[in-house]
Amino acid sequence: MKFTDGFWLVAEGSRVSYGSTVYSGKTDSDSLKLVVPCRGLRHKGDTLQGPTLTITAKPCSPDIISLEIVHYDGAKRLGPEFELYPDSAGIIPEKSTLITCPEIDAFSSDPALHSPGFATVKSGNLTAKINCNRDQFGIEFVNEKNEHVTSQPNRSIAYALQNAPSNPSTSLHSFGAKPYIISQTSLAVGEKIYGFGERFTPFIKNGQSFDSWNADGGTSSEQAYKCVSFFLSSNGYGVFVDSSDKLSFEVASEKASRVQVSSPGERLKYFLIYGPSPKEILAKYTLLTGRPALPPTVSMGLWLSTSFLTTYDEATVSGILTKIKEHEIPLSVFHFDCLWMEAFHWSDFKFDPKMFPNPQKFIANIKALIPGLRVCLWINPYISQHSDLFEEGVENGYFLKQSKESGGGVWQWDNWQPGMALVDFTNPAASEWFASKLQNLLDLGADYFKTDFGERIPTDDVEWFDKNVSVGKMHNLYSNLYQKVVFDLLEKQHGKGQAVLFARSGTAGGQRFPVHWGGDCESTFVAMAESLRGGLSLTSSGYGFWSHDIGGFEGLPSMAVYMRWVAFGLLSSHSRLHGSSSYRVPWLYEDPLPTEVVKYFSALKCKLMPYLWAQAVQTHVTGVPMMRSMFVEFPHDLSTHTLDLQYMLGDEFLVAPVFSSEEETMYYVPTISGDEYNEFEWTHYLTGKTAKSGAWAKEKHGFLSIPLLVRPGGVIVEGSRTDVVEYDFLENVNVRVYGLGKLNNLKKEVKVHAKDTKEEENAVVLSLEISEAAISITVVKGQLKGEWTATLIGVTSEKVASVDNGRLIETSEDELLEGNFIQVKVAEGVSGAKVVVQIKHGFWDPKLNCTATDTNGADGRGCAVSGGGGGGGLVLHILLCAGRSVCAESPAALRTPALQPALLCFAQHGCVCRLGPTRVQLLAADYKAPPSAIYDKLLSMFLDASNGRSSPSVVNLFEDDVIPSSNPNFWQRNLLPIHLDFSNALITVGNPDLPMSLVSYFKTSDGTFELTSASSPLDLYALLFRMNFVDLDVALKDNPDFRDPVLNYSTRTRNLRPDSFWERVRRLFLLQPDPDLDFPLQNIPRPHWEGLSRYSAINTRRNLGEEYAKTPKILECKELELQFISDVPGLTPLYQQDATLTPQEPTDLQSSPPRFAIEITAHDAFMNYGPWTDRQRITLQSYFSPPSYRTQPKTPPSLPGYPRAPTHLNIIVTFEGANSLKFATREVSKDWIFAVPDGTSRKVVREAGILQFKFPYSAPVVPEPVNTRLRRRHLSTATIASTHTVARDPEDVSRIEIVVPMVVQESGTVLGVKVMVAKATLLSSVHEAPLLVAQRVDVKVESRFPRKWNDERKFDVIVKIMEPTLMPLRDHIDLIIDSFRDFGSGGGVGDVKYFVPMRLGVDIVLEREVEVGVCVNLENVIDAPNDRKENSFMIVKCPKLMARIDMTFLTFDPTSSKVPFSIEIVQPKVSMSFPASHTIGANISEEANQIGDAVSVTLRG
Length: 1501
Known about the structure:
By secondary structure, the chain is of the alpha+beta class.
């Protein structure tokens, strides 16, 4: 509500009177009372006319000061009021309170009297300083250091009127004027405001205007179910307005530097609460308004609902619970929503006799079916006039009534149940009556109640039983009265700590009656984010426990939404599956994955119950919410202040739900204050991987995963059960300690509580101490039962010197971790028991990021093991240390100082590979030169390159004094194997001539360059290069160094100094430039290379600007294995003569040609491609492999005694895991192609289009061990081959095979490509349902290139699709046509001088159970794509469908083209499919659905 018109003017119809000066002040033992006129005082006549305010400041509990502003004190004080300090007396130690007030004489000429300074009110560390100087009234709040907290400066406290009469003598009531008290607090630069209850608008409330007025408005609007008149500031304070009336808040809106509250009436009271931390503020606020009650343990397990509008009876519910049991899903509470009562009878609290004839027996039966199951029933406080209770309530006056002016009858309306009345909880008899009806249900076996509604409380023309309550205040506070009646009943029935509600409405103090859920949301990712945002807002307002409808309420969630929400929901304090018109059981989806997801995360929550229960107890004791925003936990990290898509679950867990069907997600890892956390990393609970703090993390997570991180020094106590949430939390526990790789000075206390108890005497207290010498865990108090485990993450067994009072176990029993941890079993858990793990010296030294490798290959933390090959070959070990200091010097013979950032450059066409800060280790070798000599040479080389010298001074690396040049096999035989390790590395292809660069980033990589046996006995040996890349990203980035056109390449290539090191490298790898390239020479000096640091941030997001089809990121791969093998050829046998080398013929009579192959295996690859990407490919390809426009010479025959040669390059790419190929299309820059048919030049703007192939890999029969690939570099070639010998069905393998010819026959060359895709799904941006699903797709391409460059080229493409189901819409056809146009257009027609004629033939074969479904809905309205229960389809089925298309491009720039095609359908059968809701669909037989069939159908055109 705004009272001003801009900064200077008062709004039309408003009158605002600001407190101006302090006339007098009076103190007593516990308060300061000030008289503040709203005008300046110069003489005694100024005391007449105009409003005067009485302001009372009072210290409350420590760090809380209340202020009450009153205009007319004679106005009747109407309730209801919030119950303050319900859990304690709020007694303040006298030493924390101080009240002072100077002598004030407003009319004195003595400045010491009319401007005497400040009055003060002190409470703990908070002091209010009231400015008593003439015309300067204001309040500043300071902390114990006299530092500014916030203020209420001059003109921030006022009395206002709306609809104010112009004549002050006019009666306000008769004129219809409405009085308000206004209070404003100032905002500092950058200050952010949070809270105000469960609000789904932006998490930071700055810039928002709203009323604190409960409403049933869903989660997608500005309305809120739970309005709380409390806000939290990032500057270390909170404000609670002590009124449940319709307060209006302007948060940095009406005045950009103020938070304003306006309250109707003549008085306003509020509390300012100093923290300074958000957690301390919330603890003090909940002391004031009430701590959250502790709900029972069982309530934290999984709840399952019947949903709202589903039809169910005893058989339905029993069937659902039977399936839950069959699927072994841990279920704690089953909830019956509204329809357990008869329609029109809500609420009569009676089971519908038609559906539940014997409810008591039925409840007993389902509890016997699932032992430990609890039952919850839906209720609300609205009684329909058709209910059996209505007449009883009317007769006894239990309902809200109309005002006497309207007759005084029962207030009723139809806005929910027709003719419903509202229970009047201000009437004690009505409250007892309502509770008695619920007691009957408890007697039947019900356990809990869902206290729904309570927001739509009328304020017009009504009268409550209690005549001392205000209709305005009752609107919000009604929810507390309603829920208190039910909660008190459950506590009476079950005992303290055993009561729980599932409530929707609420206000300040409602946190005392948990638990509350987020209300009615849609079933989308957007609504999932809205729900979390509302929940974080609510927990920032004092609510300790919170839940939400998993999967969303409205509509049926997609499978992806359901599974992502399940992970989020089961990592909330309370978890419920609930919907509107459909059940939220996972088996509704045909895919078994949703069921696995529910089972997995339910079991995870069961396992985490000792930790979660301890956090729940802490929430109950302190008031700090169990789920809280990142800002509440880490206010020192400014990056957390805006985060609303992740949260902390208790003290230790960071949870970042994934809001997408894609695997990629991003979240922020906060920094942690404290000297004990020098360099720290968070740890993924599910994998043991680490994440750097103070940075954004970008990861991929499947549906059985979620970013769930534990903070450094975090302790998670796990239980022994995964099937129930109620068990002994003290028995066989696993105490997991995190972050031990960095922490070296930490003391921490951990409590483990028995289930359903909060008493300290029942808690077990563990003390964790970490020092440089040891890690110890002591049972300080209580007793752990049975053998327990200490899991220390960040410590390996190699670093353990000894274990006291425990045994180190070699085999991990922790299925959630791999790698860097140890486990210690402890037999005794009695008080005083202590387990100590002694650590070897130097483990904690922060300077030793990498410990030097010794001659036996043993390494320190951070360094990979490297071992030499046979004969003690040189081992080159490169480890990127991300710029940190590296290890101290090794033994004298093996010096390993740190190197500066190095640049390796292989310079044909300017291809650059930047490795970043590196470290090189050279181990012992048995050849002429000592290791130090070679090391010195390489060191100088790297230092020269890193300093940007174009011609490094080290050019003698291969001279006889280091590496004997007389031995041609020295490099291969004596220098290999080379072992390579990289971390956080970047490879960039590009130079200043190219506008784009190809950038590849990978987190880690390891591999070898070694010798192995040749494939043929005629060849000498094989060179084998293997690399394994982890978390690989490949993207195209704008080149910041682009400055010259491509044609300048030639000049710089030929200007390389002949004696430079780079020239030697170029000759070594035979990277000679093509002498036939006709590039003009320009005498332009070679630019100085400035390094590639600018390419390090390659997290290129999708461009959402004008060119939305731009796809810079072209590959993301969880893991990629690369293997290159090349046989070193021997000689052609003397008995074979004139044998032409062809791909089909061997080079001799006994053996195949020398092997030349590249094998790539991609795991979980996400690929992007599109027309924009294709154009960049053409640019790069034309630069690094330009067209020659010349006739290729025929390869000469192989002569006896001469070296053999490979005939082709084999490239094999295999895909494992979940893979995806996404095409972005419909470029904005191509919209010109789509003309408007009215002859104008107007463009057609097309929405962004996507075509996406997904092809998951089926697990092999014999699965490969998780860490096998990481060990491969330590295995022999034979061992590696055996590792791959797994039983795979060829139908389940997705791969690409490419055969590149390396010889030229008389007819030219043939390039062959085979693509095999298993279990393919084609999706599009048209809708979420698949366009095509196929068991297998095979593509075979033969490209025939003649020797003469401009002779006709032929391309034959054969596409076979097995078991396809195709569901096309017209929009799909448009999208595919647009894709072809985008790919095939954009440039000019080229030059006839370089025109190449070509012919393309495409065969498409669909076979094995082919099915094509065409939607034929009325008016083409499609709500649920591909759903045969919701749509009408014409379906064509056949065993085979064949199509042939011939395209010829034989003429340069033709005006038109003729494309003949033919389609043959074998034995087609055509039928109709109608939805079950359709009259025909419900009754027609399968035979009647058939339209017709044929032997075959052929189309040609």
